[in-house]
Amino acid sequence: MPFAKLHTELESRAAQGLLRRRRTLASAQGVRITVDGKSYLSFCSNDYLGLASHPKLIEALQQGAQQFGVGAGASHLVSGHFETHQQFEAAFAEFVGKPAALAFSTGYMANLGVVQALVGRGDTVFADKLNHASLNDAMLLSRAEVKRYRHNDMAHLAGLLSQTKSGRKLIITDAVFSMDGDIAPVPELLALCEQYDAWLLLDDAHGFGVLGEQGRGTLSYCKSPPAPLLQSGERESHADYKLNPDRELSPLWKRGGRGDLNTSRIIYMATLGKAAGVSGACVAAEQVVIDTLLQNARSYIYTTASPPALSVALLASLQILRDEDWRRGKLQQLIAQLCAGVRDLPWQMMASSTPIQPLLVGGNEAALSLSDGLRERGIWVPAIRPPTVPQGTARLRITLSAAHTENDIDELLKALHELAH
Ligand SMILES: *Cc1c(COP(=O)(O)O)cnc(C)c1O
Q1: pLDDT tens-digit series, residues 331-344
Q2: What's the rounded mean pLDDT across residues 175-196?
Q3: Architecture of 56-323 per CATH?
Q4: Kind of pairing, strands 38-42 and 266-271?
Q5: Atom 10, ligand 1: which residue's CA is nearest?
Q6: CA of residue 344 to ligand 1 center, whole Å
Q7: Is the predicted pLDDT of residue 10 greater than 70, yes or no?
Q8: Confidence (pLDDT) at 224
Q9: Whole-prediction pTM value?
Q10: Within 6 Å (CB) of ligand 1, which residues are found?
Q11: How far is CA 256 from CA 245, 299, 336, in A?
Q12: I need a surface site. Which of 38, 171, 268, 318 has the fewest CB within 10 A?
């Protein structure tokens, strides 16, 4: 029995109800999905804008495959770097307001590559305690010293920075936290970078496409003066927000101006398989940082380039982000509807103005049975439990998409109210 120990470990996991399992989709990603032969209303994808199966992206991918074939055939530094990769990087850099960019195959690989390329032994990484697993793995792999600060606690971070005298300093944080939906205090983080001569890696997996003017992401959200109001024709459908008075909900696409913010210390990373609806990731930063990544980032250098047709689809996705503000307006409207509708439930919605809307349940069993109850009613919302989130904070992670309708939200609210009784 060469694998007896593995059997035992898996069995004990199963006994604690912690065995992870996959569910198999038989339809395209979207609001209505077919899973294991049954149809569900889904609130569990990161396809926030409903682009994953958008006809324009499908067409772009097909056209890209016609032109460039399927496989890239080699790594970027050998012979796998295509014109369309280059065009996408330039378009991405321009879109997020940075001088240069480098595209990676996934966000996980981008984080590993950036941290390992920029810091090593003798340097220090400062990390928010609620960061995504890929940032945690990246800092361990880098061999830099690791200091973790309490979630969004700038005083704690300042204390740790002030105790660090030598080596490079890199702060790493989610921009929008994936299990909580709240936003990192970017201006305050930048002020600390200036004060202590540190760099900031901002992981905008959940902000890119969703936050800021035209979906340019968290940098734009923190920086740009309020965008002009929507055209009168577009306004009609978004006019009637049912706002929850207990929560401040400024529309996603506009936010008070910090146009003076100097963001040159930021290394900005966005993943492209979430709101952008495709796959991959792109890092944007000062030219010298990008040049350094090209020389040093092992997860960039030692892997086959992603299929060039994906870059063609990504260029089409950027165009939709620019053109279709209504998707972000719609999201905002759905968020307001959901928040207003849960007020009289026994569970609290966590404070979030992003499409990640966690409903805090508390106990593991309670969260699971709520998720099961919804599934029996044909609604799919995952329960998130420790160790993914802290003990006692098991929750339903509700994610919204611009492709949801008001009726979809009503259906979810009705089911939650039934299950509360
Ligand atoms: C999803 C995610 C990643 C990983 O991106 P992939 O492209 O899926 O590998 C990194 N960071 C955060 C915060 C994420 O949510």
Answers
A1: 999 999 999 999 99
A2: 96
A3: 3-Layer(aba) Sandwich (3.40)
A4: unpaired
A5: 107
A6: 33
A7: yes
A8: 66
A9: 0.92
A10: 106-108, 111, 132, 134, 174, 178, 203, 205-206, 271, 273, 281
A11: 19, 37, 20
A12: 38
